[in-house]
Amino acid sequence: MKMVAQVRDGLSQREVARACRVSLSTVQRWLTRAGDLPLDEVDWGTRPSGCRVSPRRTKAKVEDQVLTIRRQLRTKSDLGEYGPEAIQRELKARGRPAIGIATIARILSRRGALDGRQRVRRQAPPPGWFLNDVADQFAELDSFDAIEDLVIRGGTDVNVLTGISLHGGLCAAWPMEQVTAKATVNCLIEHWREFGRPRYAKFDNGTIFQGAHQWPDSFGRVTRLCLSLQITPVFAPPLSRGFQADIEAFNRRWQEAVWSRFQFRKRDDVASQSRRFVAAHRQRYGVRIEDAPHRRPFPQNWRLNLQKPLRGTVIYIRETDAQGRADVLGHTYDVSPAWVHRLVRADVDLTKSQIRFHSLRRKEPHQHHLLATHRYDVPKKRFQE
Questions:
Q1: Mind listing the pLDDT tens digit for each residue in 12-24?
Q2: CA atoms of 201 and 185, how far apart (whole Å)
Q3: What angle do CA 251, 364, 230 make, to 5 degrees?
Q4: Model pTM greater than 0.85?
Q5: For residue 185, what are the β-bridge partners?
Q6: What are phi and psi of 253, to 5 degrees?
Q7: Burial class of residue 231 (count of CB atoms within 10 Å of its CB; 0-12, 13-18, 19+)
Q8: Cα torsion at 62, 63, 65, 71 (round to 10°)?
Q9: Residue 119 counted as domain residue
Q10: Tens digits of per-residue pLDDT, 318-371?
């Protein structure tokens, strides 16, 4: 209104456009809208010109017919079908004008006659939800894994032991010829001696970490190391998604940043580039590492004794079968007939000689109910070094 009034008072259109900081076409459009009418009689609404309803839109009478047929089919159809295809067939059977399936679908959507339910997306559980003190960020958890079967041109094998903390993002990578249990123990001691001990250490169920699978009650070298340092080892469920997401994401990043970017001639070159990547990664996430839960100092004058009697707790996350049973350490335990094909956390308490099974639900990440308790005879046989 102000722009039209200024032009009518004698200012040029360009002067008005510069004063109002708009384009010349904007001033001209409002002048065209006002025409010769007095300013108080001009429609200054911002609604675009043109027909409010498209002339090609289906007539309201036809839309009402579509809705009527849908209601009839929903209650009387022998097939129980009342979607756009069924409505189109019924229209043809009644000799009505043909309407496309897409048009019928738009009519149903426009008139609010759809029964489709939107997928409910629930909030993801917090990191480490299967352990309450980890989920509440009172304790740190280190995850370890192995990248296997990398080959340098010429036939040099490269395998990488990797690790990363859940809350702090403190990473580590050790390229080597072969990842073995002894090499893993040496790397873990080096890592924890430098940065401190976490409350938990998580692994997959490979023999390198867990121990031999062909014998029951097998506690491997890595498990005994963790128990000796009062670190609770946690073994992720086989073939289950999500529990190894943190370390798998770091493995992918290591391969993209180190292995895929360079051509190496020998294994030492891989180790050198890996050290630079790890140092840069730790510097990049320095604040996050400092804000992570406290890590306990490494004990002084400590020495690994693999023959030491087993004390502490080992955690296995497993899934029950159709009878509500779970396999742990080569034995099958009854958990609950009402908890079939569900996740459970088996806390093997070596100090109290018992196994406690807790329910795990992502929908209720802080409610881990005790389902069953069984006696467990701690093996006393000598560890074969």
A1: 989 888 888 888 8
A2: 12
A3: 55
A4: no
A5: none
A6: -65, -40
A7: buried
A8: 170
A9: no
A10: 999 999 999 999 999 999 999 999 999 999 999 999 999 999 998 888 889 999
Q: Cα–Cα distances in Å, from 8 out to 37, 175, 210, 293, 296?
A: 12, 81, 88, 72, 81
**CA 141/CA 135 separation, integer angstroms:** 10
Closest CA to 268 of 191, 158, 184, 148: 158
Q: Which among 227, 198, 238, 216 has a CA at the least distance from the CA of 349?
A: 227
Q: Is residue 48 part of a domain?
A: no
Which domain range does residue 22 map to?
A: 2-41
Question: Cα separations (Å) of 132 from 60, 123, 143, 154, 295?
Answer: 59, 17, 17, 48, 17
CB under 8 Å to 307, separation ≥6 — which residues? 382, 383
Please spell the DSSP secondary structure of 6-34, one letter per residue.
HHHTT--HHHHHHHHT--HHHHHHHHHHH
One domain, residues 208 and 144:
yes
Nearest to 373 by CA among 349, 339, 340: 349
Residue type, 180: T
Name 375's Cβ contacts closer than 8 Å, sequence gap at least 6.
353, 354, 355
- Same domain assignment for residues 76 and 215: no
Contact status, residue 273 vs residue 257, Cβ threshold 8 Å: no
